[in-house]
Structure formats: structure tokens, C-alpha cells
Amino acid sequence: xKDGCKFCEIASGKLPAAVVFEGPGVIAFLDHRPxxxxxxxxxxxxxxxxxxxxxxxxxxxxxxxAQHLAQAMESGLGAEGSFVAINNRVSQSVPHLHVHVVPRxxxxxxxGFFWPRGKYxxxxxxxxxxxxxxxxxxxx
Length: 140
What we know:
Blueprint: H1 6-12, E1 19-23, E2 26-30, E3 40-44, H2 56-77, E4 81-85, E5 99-104, H3 123-138
Antiparallel strand pairs: 1-2, 2-3, 3-5, 4-5
């Protein structure tokens, strides 16, 4: 637990939250400023700031719960689907790993991604980016 981290305080029970699920190492609760009713934040109980800081053994269990939450949104809330997202550092309002699981319905007003999208300036630029990522993947 990290002092001053709101999500650590929720995980430890020091701060109240509308808990949807709690299991070994994880807790899921309603976002207090939801995109739509049912918007859940799923966090590891340990203070981990980003997905890249999560031990590999924790990734599977975390995303298994995210999968169950997405299914529960469909069966329990009548959602037609879900939006699942993680911010790492940039746009991360609380510096503690959290997975947003948001119920979706067609024509709910959420337009795909929240940021502007662009195109590569050329096939060569796209290939250069692809190569850099591919090379970096072999180093991990």
C-alpha cells in the first residue's frame, strides 16, 4: 500500500467504494464519475502504477476478472457490449493500475476512441514503426 494513494485506501477498506467484486489480489468498484452507469474500475490490491509494472503472473488473473465484469454487464445490465481500457501514466487520474470496464449500447454516444486518429504519412513510415516495435518485442 502506498501512502496517499486513493486506490490503495479503497483496497484496504480505509476509503469507501461501491464494491462490485473482491477476490484474491483484486478489487472492482464503480467509478464515481462514470462514462455510463455500471462503469467499473478493476485494480490490483497491491500498489502497481502501470500495466508494465504488473508481474506477469498477475496479468492473467486481472484480465480474467475484467472478462467476467464485461460478461456481467451484458447479463446483469443489459449492455450490448463493453469498452475495456487502461491508461499508463498519460491520462491516468490516479497513479495506480486500473482497468476501466464500461457497459456499452449501440448509439450510446461514445464515439470509438476518445482521441484524434491519424494516418501514417507513408508505407515507409509505417514499416519503420513496425520494425522498431518488433525489435523491442524481442528484447522483452
